[in-house]
Amino acid sequence: MIKGTQLYDLKAGGWRDLGMMDVMQIFGRAGRPRFDKSGEGIIITSHDKLAYYLRLLTSQLPIESQFISSLKDNLNVEVTPHNVKEACAWLGYTYLFIRMKMNPLAYGIEWDEVLGSWLARHAAFEEDKLNLSSGGSPMQ
């Protein structure tokens, strides 16, 4: 049972909401793990936080990657890129890459950049479709 969803954060000097990982950890321990096949969790919160925790518990809130904060270190440790292309290919296999495509604004990518890259991809697609890149004519 979680009674109240706010914690006092000394570093921030104020109250903060209980995070998703904390709630999932507490509820993950509901019941007796070796004896019960299921458990129950109860959360008591204010009415204005109810919708947030319902979305959280029904997995309707996306989980954003925190990898970007340690990206430089991981590139140095995991990959010894001989070129930028190799590093970009490696990055393409990460959850960060997936989330950046789904929610670029959350990772500091400006809306103009998002729109610009979409327009560039769309223009390249149309150019390929019309066979202009190989010197062909759209009428062929």
UniProtKB/TrEMBL annotation:
Molecular-function annotations in GO: ATP binding; DNA helicase activity; hydrolase activity
Broadest EC class assigned to this enzyme: hydrolase
InterPro entries, A to Z: Hel308_SKI2-like, P-loop_NTPase, WH-like_DNA-bd_sf, WH_MER3
EC number: 3.6.4.12
Superkingdom of origin organism: Eukaryota
Annotated ranges, domain MER3 helicase-like winged helix: 64-114
Hydrolase listed as a keyword: yes
Pfam family, one: WHD_SNRNP200
Gene3D superfamilies listed in its UniProt record: P-loop containing nucleotide triphosphate hydrolases, Winged helix-like DNA-binding domain superfamily/Winged helix DNA-binding domain
SUPFAM superfamilies reported in the protein's UniProt record: P-loop containing nucleoside triphosphate hydrolases
Keywords per UniProt: ATP-binding, Helicase, Hydrolase, Nucleotide-binding
Similarity comment text for this entry: Belongs to the disease resistance NB-LRR family.
Protein name, UniProt field: DNA helicase
Organism per entry: Helianthus annuus (Common sunflower)
Classification of source organism: Eukaryota, Viridiplantae, Streptophyta, Embryophyta, Tracheophyta
